[in-house]
Amino acid sequence: MSPVRTCSRTACKAPAVFTLTYVYRDSTAVLGPLATYAEPHCYDLCAEHSERLTAPMGWELVRLPVEEETEPSADDLEALADAVREAARPAPGSPHEPVGQGTEVGRRGHLRVLRSEPAGTQPAQD
Q1: Does residue 89 sit within a domain?
Q2: Residue 34 burial by CB count (10 A; 0-12/13-18/19+): exposed, middle or buried?
Q3: Is the residue at 77 inside a domain?
Q4: Residue ranges of region Disordered (predicted)?
Q5: What is the pTM of this model?
Q6: Structural domain total, the chain
């Protein structure tokens, strides 16, 4: 199964960019942005077929505005990098606990059980 949805028109293999739905009660066809999920009774259309689309006689065709996808700017990427750096910094005034060695208590396959020793004490020698 392809991760890109294709146009619902027969023999068209172009990627879908719009979804066509119908509201039968109002005799309205609605062409909008590509739906997140493929739904039954909806048709995914490529750009070419969506431009040539017409509604049946007596029906209204509503074309919803589609937001243009913009690439992240350099400012966006710098702001993201700064946020990551800030989150990685230790909080001011936070105590740094020394990391103890721990004592190996048991072993099973590739797993180990370690008993942590209180800070400042020597591990017991077995």
Answers
A1: no
A2: middle
A3: no
A4: 86-126
A5: 0.52
A6: 1
